[in-house]
Amino acid sequence: MPYPATHKPQTRERILNSAAQLFTKNGYEGVSIDQVMAEAGLTRGAFYSHFADKSSLYAAAIQYASKERFRFYRAELTAGVSIERLIEGYLHPDHIKGRDMPCALAFLVSDISQREQQVRSTYTEVYKGLLQGLEHLGTDEKRERLACIAASVLMIGGVAIGRALDDEQITSDLLEACRAVSLQLLEPDQTL
Amino acid sequence: MPYPATHKPQTRERILNSAAQLFTKNGYEGVSIDQVMAEAGLTRGAFYSHFADKSSLYAAAIQYASKERFRFYRAELTAGVSIERLIEGYLHPDHIKGRDMPCALAFLVSDISQREQQVRSTYTEVYKGLLQGLEHLGTDEKRERLACIAASVLMIGGVAIGRALDDEQITSDLLEACRAVSLQLLEPDQTL
DNA sequence: GTCTATAGCAGGATAGAC
DNA sequence: GTCTATCCTGCTATAGAC
Lengths: 192, 192
Known about the structure:
Two copies of one chain form a homodimer.
Chain A: H1 7-26, H2 33-39, H3 54-78, H4 83-90, H5 93-96, H6 104-107, H7 117-136, H8 145-164, H9 168-185
Chain A binds a DNA duplex through residues 2-3, 7-8, 11, 32-34, 42-50, 53-54.
């Protein structure tokens, strides 16, 4: 039995992990199937027995990356990390530089509208998940929706713009401003 | 005299205008030099007597689009249009849909970090211009820098994320939240 | 300055052996 | 399921005629 039943799912996961890392950092057009497969220790020919095409992989990778990220945040919260610290970690130079698995919502935001329906709808679902997370983050009562939306825009937008800029001083100021305002918006009884 | 002295600059301007429209809406990889030249009524061969390569054109197009946009805003302000109306126009579904010449800062934000130094530094200069505009917008005294940064992130991020999303209801809520918070941040005596 | 023609390459997708 | 080999397309960039 050369290929045990667990082999295929495991391989698929390896491909997804490789794709999530590469796509998030380099965008859809910035990554070839060759690269994804090489990173996963395979060759291009093997790809099409796991995914229909590049676009499907992209959508799946975004979902995968986000699940990993949500899992991480849940663990942090369980371990007693404060909201302030989580926001600080998100709006942080290390995140912008792409260490580990960065946030696909931020890194790919203007990549998405050029992709197919399937990709946009995946992105939208992930964004909804983040929004719901912010609404209930570390509190029993639900936060105001619009305040959470504005906070999410400051987080995602802050990382996206900070990544584009070429001037460390401005990026640093930008992160500081986004941290301050988003935290204020996430105060439990905040209303717009 | 088959080519008058005004011919080349005019042609260059036609190419830039075509490039600004196409690149802003479709990103760097989403546009070919063929398309840009065809839109300008020329063929690909003529391109390289105006620009060194595709990357240079991209940087020049971002600068061109932004100058057009700043010109537009100055005219609006001179005509007595309020800041509220300007923000409303920016954070508006029509802008997201790409009518006329959309804002390159928003539409290309996550495209930029994958390009060369030249492009990133152009983007950074344009962003600095917007920031300075916000600091002095319709007031004699200078607004607080961090408040203006946060407002700019809500504007750029709001358009970028709104464009990615596939759900009109959420996009509409998102634009509303960004309008409300950014306007609040631009109140003349606002401090963080 | 603009054209047509072409060189050269990268990458998506498929075929067929193992 | 994975491999190698191949087809095919699209694109940047250049050459050379007008």
